[in-house]
Amino acid sequence: MSRTHFDYIVIGGGSGGYAAARTARETREHVAIVDSSEILGGLCILKGCMPSKTLIYSAELLHLAQRGENFGLKIPAAVADMPALHQRKVDTTKEFAEYRQEQLHSDRFTLFRNHAKFVDANTIELKDGLQLTADYFMIATGSVVSAPAIPGIKDVPYWTSDDVLDLNFLPEKIIILGGGIVACELAQFLRRIGSEVIQIQRSPHILKEISPQASTVIETAFRDEGIQLYTDTSLKEISRLDSRFTVTFDQNGQTIEVEAPHLLNALGRRPSTQGLNLEAAGVTTRETGHIECDETQRTANPKIYACGDVAGPHEIVHIAIMQGEVAAKHATNRKTTPIHYDDLLSVVFTDPQVGVVGLTEATLKARDLDFLSAEYPFDDHGKSILMGAKYGYVRVFAEKKTGILLGAECVSKDAGELIHSMAVAITMKASVKDLLKVHWYHPTLSEIWSYPIEDIVEQM
Question: Higher confidence at residue 99 or residue 186?
């Protein structure tokens, strides 16, 4: 390829990067994508959303089959076939990856399978020495697993989420460090396929990003399923001897040691900016390591934008896509609307799942907003009772004066699906009185929303 100057260059071909490239290509002729990954596709498709949810769904079916007697069924035996489970994950992920690879290889773009670093404010250099310039750049390099400063952790061959998602055998016993979304989803997956699981969380609750009330429900479910969960701990040391890991930590004034043949580091991820030479481009980062952006995703260098995990503030794939689209439209002089994070939707794929949309109770109080709230439990709801899915609740927040929905929370079976009705309502600025006009069909899980909505109307 003789061309070295482009209208738009995207560094990183994941979901956010591709969205930016596709959007830029709508009005610009010369768009390039630079991606150094061994396999194209991005984190979500290859090592995140798609493989993890494929495995989690299989584990859910196994869990239900093993509880067959509760539903009047005789199922003699239900166990995980690990090679088959692994192959199904490979096959499913491959379909999504191949489609994205076709898109990236399209003649609409110039694709460089190479590593890029900035050499000045409008030039990148590839590993082979080729230098490229552009009118505008997008940085969409994602994130990588981080290793916190815990004595011994860098000296042991721990697993990451990548390793767990690629398992073709059943780990007999495993210690999981962390209580975030990835840690919790994989902890329950491993437990349900038959592993003995010890999970250690430093904060008082797992899933500290959600409400303590929601976290408590998940903690109860985990312990009911046999996960050995330790919270509010202080990690002291990690070591390995004779193929067994030992983790030492303090909890409630006591020093505790646990050991297992496998160790998963799920203590978080960090923005993948190493090697980009951002300083040469005049791009600054925040204390968290995320690239500093304005509401259009533009960095301190007005020719360079960033989106997705490398930018934050929310490492969610649909946010990365939205950010990529906003940035590309802004760079190509088109009208765009900044992302309204007050409507943020997030889901945790544990069982029960957690779905949260809009403003949380903590945010509402911090902003000193006048609001009403109401909730209703699933253990008093017809459809969830007959499904044996009684963990959790729904909760709704509305502006006191107008009844306009401000936020909602759902902890339940399929909460990731149920929360979307509230996401639509919040985005469209519907009120609780508007929602009472909806036909909430009985018996469904979704009709549970009508109960707290009615309660708020009565409060008004």
Answer: 186
Paired sense of beta strands 131-139 and 304-306, if any: parallel
Burial code (b: 16+ CB inside 10 Å, e: under 16) for 432-446 equals beebeeeeeeeeebb
Q: Which residue type does 355 have?
A: G
Cα distance between residue 76 and residue 74, in whole Å: 6
- Does the reported pTM lie above 0.90? yes
Distance CA 257, CA 275 (A): 38
Q: Where would I find the H helices in 201-256?
A: 212-224
Query: Cis ω on the peptide bond leading into residue 83 (within 30° of 0)?
Result: no
| Beta-strand runs (E) in 14-104 | 31-34
In a 3-state reduction of DSSP, which class is residue 407?
strand
* Strands across the sheet containing 405-412: 345-348, 353-358, 405-412, 393-399, 371-377
CATH 3.50.50.60 fits 153-267, yes or no: yes
**CATH number listed for the domain at residues 342-459:** 3.30.390.30
